[in-house]
Design goal:
Order of helices and strands: HHHEEHHEHEEHHH
Shape: elongated
Number of strands: 5
Number of domains: 2
CATH architecture of the largest domain: 2-Layer Sandwich
Distance between the termini: 57 Å
CATH class of the largest domain: Alpha Beta
CATH topology of the largest domain: Beta-Lactamase
Length: 247
C-alpha cells in the first residue's frame, strides 16, 4: 500500500477484514464519528491538524503522532503530540533525507518496520534508535490531486504497525486532508474579505480627504501598491494606521 491512488480500495478491504476479526466496528465508528465532529468544529488549519494528531493517539498503535503540511511557502510542521516529533521532522528537513522527506517528495506511504535495521537512511536510523523509536509510518494526505501534508505515526517497538493499522491511518489521513483543504479555503476566503474591507476603508479616507470618487481613490492605492512593490491590502492598512501613504 504505497501509491495513494490505490489506497482507498485496499484500505477498505483490510479494514473490513480487521473489523470482522476484532469485532471493534462500533468502537471505530464511534471514534471516527467523533473525529468528524471535531474536524467540523475546528477553527482553522491549526486546530484541524491538532485534532488529527490527538485522534491518532486514540485510534492507532502509536506513541507519538505528527502532521507535516505542504504549501506554497514550502513545508511546515502542522502539529505534533510531543516535541520529539518536531525535532525528528526538522532534522529530516535540514538533512534533506529520511522517510518523511521521501513521503513528502514522492507522495507515497513510507513504512519503516524496524528503525534499527533500516539501511536506506543510516544517519536517520541511528538518531531515531537513540530516541527510542522502533517503527515509523508516514501516510500522505491527498486532497484531490494536491498533497496537503503527511500524517506521521511513531512507536517505540519495531514491527508495531500492522496492515490494519496502515489501513486505518489511510482513512484518518483522508479525513485530515479534506478537513485541512477546507480549513485553508476558509482562511483564504476570510483573508480576501478582510482585504476588501481594508481597501474600502482606505478608499474612504482618500475620498474624504481629497474629494475623490471611488475609481480615483482605488487607482491611487493601486499605483502606490505597484510603485512600492507592496500588496494592496498592506498599502491600505498603512494608510488606515498612519493616515499616510507609503513613501
Amino acid at each position: 500500500m504505497t501509491e495513494h491512488a490505490s489506497a482507498p480500495a485496499v484500505e477498505k478491504q483490510v479494514l473490513r477484514e480487521a473489523l470482522d476479526h476484532s469485532g471493534s466496528e462500533p468502537l471505530l465508528a464511534t471514534v471516527f464519528a467523533q473525529l468528524a465532529v471535531e474536524l467540523h468544529d475546528a477553527d482553522g488549519v491549526d486546530d484541524t491538524v491538532e485534532a488529527v494528531v490527538q485522534f491518532a493517539l486514540q485510534a492507532e498503535a502509536c506513541t507519538y503522532a505528527g502532521v507535516m503540511l505542504t504549501g506554497h511557502g514550502g513545508w511546515e510542521i502542522g502539529a505534533v503530540t510531543d516535541p520529539l516529533v518536531a525535532r525528528i521532522y526538522q532534522e529530516q528537513i535540514d538533512a534533506g533525507e529520511g522517510p518523511l522527506h521521501a513521503a513528502l517528495t514522492s507522495g507515497t506511504t513510507m513504512y519503516v518496520a524496524d528503525v534499527a535495521t533500516e539501511a536506506r537512511w543510516p544517519s536517520w536510523s541511528t538518531r531515531l534508535t537513540s530516541y527510542g523509536v522502533g517503527s515509523v509510518l508516514h501516510v500522505p494526505m491527498w486532497a484531490a490531486d494536491q498533497l496537503v501534508g503527511v500524517l506521521s505515526l511513531y512507536n517505540g517497538d519495531p514491527q508495531a504497525f500492522s496492515a490494519d493499522d496502515e489501513a486505518i491511518a489511510h482513512i484518518l489521513a483522508r479525513h485530515a486532508s479534506v478537513a485541512v483543504a477546507a480549513a485553508r479555503d476558509g482562511e483564504t476566503m476570510t483573508a480576501a474579505v478582510d482585504a476588501r474591507k481594508l481597501v474600502g476603508q482606505a478608499m474612504g479616507i482618500l475620498m474624504e480627504r481629497f474629494d475623490l470618487d471611488e475609481s480615483q481613490a482605488f487607482q491611487i492605492l493601486k499605483r502606490y501598491s505597484q510603485d512600492t512593490n507592496t500588496k494592496l491590502r498592506d498599502v491600505a492598512q498603512h494608510l488606515i494606521d498612519t493616515r499616510k501613504l507609503p513613501q
